[in-house]
Amino acid sequence: MPSAFLQRLRSSSGMARSLFVYWRPGRQRGLQRLYRSFIQPGDIAFDIGAHLGDRSAAFHALGAKVVALEPQPALAKWFKRILNRPNITLLPLAAGPQPGHADIAISVGNPTLSTLATDWRHQVGERNPGFQHIRWEQQLRVEVTTLDQLIATYGEPSFIKIDVEGFEAEVLMGLNHPVAALSVEFVAGVLEVSHACVDQLKRLGDYRFNAIAGEQRRFRWETWQSPEAITQWLNDGVDGLASGDLYACRVDHPLVNASA
């Protein structure tokens, strides 16, 4: 086991890396351009797996009332330092299929990869070379809420960002209303998570899909795709992408109509 000193050193290094990646100059402008099609002034936006708050900051800059969830105390502390602003509510919670408690596995050196998804954690290192060096050294018991509970408390969001390292489908299990739009992360090697997310969204309503590779800001297709088409794309291996975000819009969303 690493000494407490080495763990603190790795934690500081991981936090510094995240601050550099997610708060580098110019990044916010690109995020705001991306989310402007989803969020209008006065809207509500949920940031599930908020990390250091870069997406929450973009939502807030667009005029949204932001509800952010980040269960890791170290990240929540930095979030508050960076984003102590009106209309941003940070909750030290995870989201899942039902209220309760769960164990989050924390990667000290890579806190953005901490996860509640046990199977995902065991599989991703074997299937995705980019994760072979990742270790999850700590566990923390955290409180879990649901998207339905958040909606009951704060109102219906125009957009939900979900980035919870393999636990995305479980988060969607806690949603029983077809919200206007949302995004979920996908990772090569564990695309069964993405398949499960598409299945959950088909249960909720009539959605169309698009994708963004990695940390890019451009949608992959001009026309939003049907559930069948996006399922085939997942089956075909997502064009060899290592990771990215899958976006879903209700069929009556202006973005879908604009591309039709």
From TrEMBL:
Pfam families: Methyltransf_21. One of its GO terms (biological process) is methylation. Residues 47-190 form the Methyltransferase FkbM domain. It comes from the Bacteria. Keywords: Methyltransferase, Transferase. GO terms for molecular function: methyltransferase activity. SUPFAM superfamilies: S-adenosyl-L-methionine-dependent methyltransferases. InterPro entries: FkbM_mtfrase, SAM-dependent_MTase, SAM-dependent_MTases_sf. PANTHER family: METHYLTRANSFERASE, FKBM FAMILY PROTEIN, SLL1173 PROTEIN. This is FkbM family methyltransferase. It comes from Vreelandella andesensis.
